[in-house]
Amino acid sequence: MKKNIILMGPPGAGKGTLAKKLISFGLVHISTGDMFREAIKEGTELGKLAKSFIDDGHLVPDDVTIGIVKERLSKPDCENGFLLDGFPRTLPQAEALEKLSKEINRPIEVVINLDCDEEELIRRVSGRRVCKNCGAPYHIVNMKPNKDGICDICGGPLIQRADDNEEAMKVRLQHYVSQTKPLLDYYAKLGNLVSYNSLMGSDKLFDEISEFLKK
Ligand code: ADP
Ligand code: ZN
User: Fold this and answer.
1) What is the Å distance from ligand 1's center to 215 Cα?
2) Domain extents for the chain?
3) List 3, 15, 106, 124, catalytic entry
4) Ligand 2: distance of its center to the CA of 160 in Å?
5) What is the pLDDT of residues 38-50, one digit of tens each?
6) pTM above the 0.90 mark?
7) In which element (H, E) is residue 161 found?
């Protein structure tokens, strides 16, 4: 079973949804977006700083983001494998991760890229709802909850993320194209990149990727 995985792809490609399925393999899910949203909810200094970038669709500065990932990846529960979702997003982050993962002897084994066209991304993000309590993802058309506006898992209210609006989404896509997409070349050169078309839907995607990870 492959472990120590990076999930890459534009906002709305389905990284979070896939990650939540893959944790059934015992991998620890590390989402920098979730970590920032948690800090915002708790009103910490980190949260206040992160919010000023996130709501408009900008990236949180590298030193801050690299710092929280370093701390998280060094924890004992990552020993059996981790799944990075939303990190790295810039070249300095990727370089810091290369260095760190070697230092702590937890090298990245595979980078999974989820491809998706821009029109579909915008459709997905504008219809996305998340549970206010547990963060579970839904979509008003594609992934409806059993009961409108209520989380199937915990019964919490479903809300729209502050950055899931048209303006912020445009900015997020620009950051993706200029800063994150070039990392695909970086990982292709390192030789551990695989790509999947996320248009196949989350169940099929999970089946195919599970098969690949088990090999
Ligand atoms: P999505 O993949 O849908 O854009 P995420 O939950 O991964 O959403 O991230 C939400 C926001 O959190 C990003 O738009 C960015 O502002 C911030 N963020 C998350 N990860 C990083 C990162 N690695 N570097 C900088 N900012 C980040
Ligand atoms: Zn919930």
Assistant:
1) 30
2) 5-117+179-214
3) 15
4) 13
5) 999 999 999 999 9
6) yes
7) none
